[in-house]
Amino acid sequence: MAALEPKQQRRFAVEVVRRLRAAGFTAYWAGGCVRDQLLGRTPKDYDVATNATPAEIQELFGRHRTLAIGAVFGVITVKGPKAAGMIEVATFRKDAAYSDGRHPDSVTFSSAEEDARRRDFTVNGLFFDPIDERVIDYVGGQDDLAARRLRAIGNPRERIAEDKLRMLRAVRFSAALRFVLEESTLAAIRELAGEITAVSAERIAMEMRRMLVESGRVQAVRLLLESNLAPFVLPEIIPTDEATRQKLEQALAVLGRLGRSDFRHSGAMPTLVVGMTETRETLPHAHDEGGHGIQEFGPGFSLALMTLLHRIVSPKESLEICRRWKLSNVESDRVYWLLAHRSSLEAAQSLRWSQLQPLLIAAGIDDLLTFMEAVSPIAAEAAAFCREQLKRPREELDAPPIVTGDDLIALGIPQGPNYRVLLEEIHRLQLDGDLQNRQQVLRWLESKKQP
Fold first, then answer.
1. What is the Cα–Cα distance from 180 to 394, expressed in whole angstroms?
2. pTM score, two decimals?
């Protein structure tokens, strides 16, 4: 898949609005792309809101250039050039009741103001007119951006009742943006925290995945505790006494050192950008319904989750968490492996090659070394040693075995469980240089056959 070009994406997003406007419709950029632009970030992608109906959008852009996957909610996807990607064009709408606590039972097309007021947080409820270069703000989002404040639109209890996942999204946005979670919004989350269980495990895991890979991950964990969501999504991290509190703090300290983030805007509020000028920084984002994510440079999810848990749970207990969130086998296995080997390389410089090499060629080695680099200077030295070893030629780092099971059969060694034991022992001796060629291995095997 071709990489998207931010300038091409922006140009296409302007063109979509221009086409709609030329056809007599109202059209604005909406949601997360507006928020990110006003924060001085280059949006990863763009959403457009309009008073054109789905049928009118398809007629204007042509059915061969549109996808109607979200048409039931008034959303049509418009395909652009390869470098520009696709843009979701949504009709201004008003939502009916949310019987399942996640999705509206039905939608009716409405005005721009009604569309803004049905969204989650004020900073995600802004529109931007890229033709006239102006912000359209029906919900006070600009004031909240300037105050670095995350606030629900309207009554926070009503917004949460509509979509229970908004509680976790509030934690994620607040932490990733480094915004204060507004008092009444936080109070509503505390009151309704137990209702997060109405959300599917997969959706909870999706939010946790985003929280832990973004640069505000430590603050996100603290907000999970402060908002009373932790007992319902990750009770293992709740301190029960001073000893467990210290373990959590130690884990959070390491979690905060994972990955590399750009903190140029970690202090004062950046100057708001509302024009068509180039923004100051480009950060990768994770697409998110109702507003794009804020993902900055951070660790992979399995590594971040393992780091949070490494002082708190055993490898076996971590699998219970993975099962609860219905994580993939790949993610679950990686978390388990990292926890099982979190201390295995602390003395890497003194390990025999047969002890070090199996870990160096494991799929999770880069994550493990990244974790070690964040743990302590001593562990970081061991990690640096391992990274040097990883520079060895592939044929030296992971040399093929000198003999196989077929060789054991040819020597008349009875088949059975002992094959695996013999082959592992041979490979260990091979790695340590005690057996260097086939002849030496065969003599060693012959000696094993003697009484």
1. 50
2. 0.84
Q: Taking a C-beta distance cutoff of 8 angstroms, is the pair 321, 272 a contact?
A: no
| CA 347 vs CA 251, 314, 389: distances in Å | 21, 21, 14
Question: Rounded to 5 degrees, what are φ and ψ at 211?
Answer: -55, -45
- d(C-alpha 277, C-alpha 423), whole Å: 65
Neighbours of 273 (CB within 10 A): 17
- For residues 412-425, one letter each, b for 16 or more C-beta atoms within 10 angstroms of the residue's C-beta and e for the rest, the string is ebeeeeeeeebbee
- Tell me whether residue 364 is in a domain: no
How would you write the chain as a 3-class SS string? CCCCCHHHHHHHHHHHHHHHHHCCCCEEEECHHHHHHHCCEECCCCEEEECCCHHHHHHHHCHHHEECCCHHHCEEEEECCCCCCEEEEEECEEECCCCCCCCCCCEEECCHHHHHHCCCEHHHCCEEECCCCEEECCCCHHHHHHCCEECECCCHHHHHHHCCCHHHHHHHHHHHHCCEECHHHHHHHHHHHHHHHHCCHHHHHHHHHHHHHCCCHHHHHHHHHHCCCHHHHCHHHCCCCHHHHHHHHHHHHHHHHCCCCCCCCCCCCCCCCCCCCCCCEECCCCCCCCCCCCCCCCCCHHHHHHHHHCCCCCHHHHHHHHHHCCCCHHHHHHHHHHHHCCCCCCCHHHCCHHHHHHHHCCCCHHHHHHHHHHHCHHHHHHHHHHHHHCCCCHHHHCCCCCCCHHHHHHCCCCCCCHHHHHHHHHHHHHHCCCCCCHHHHHHHHHHHHCC
Residues of the chain with pLDDT under 50: 261-293
Distance in Å from the first CA to the final CA of the chain: 62
Name the packing angle between helices 217-226 and 201-213 (round to 10°).
130
* 30 bridge partner residues: 127
The pLDDT tens digits for 190-225 are: 999 999 999 999 999 999 999 999 989 999 999 999
Q: Which domain holds residue 134?
A: 1-141
Give pLDDT, residue 28. 98
Task: Find the largest Cα–Cα distance for the chain.
Answer: 95
Question: CATH number, domain at 90?
Answer: 3.30.460.10
pLDDT digits (tens, 9 = 90+) for 294-312: 555 578 999 999 999 999 9
Q: Assess if residue 355 is contained within a domain.
A: no
| Domain termination residue (choose one: 123, 141, 159) | 141
Label residue 146 exposed, middle or buried (CB < 10 Å: 0-12, 13-18, 19+). exposed
- The total number of structural domains that make up the chain: 2
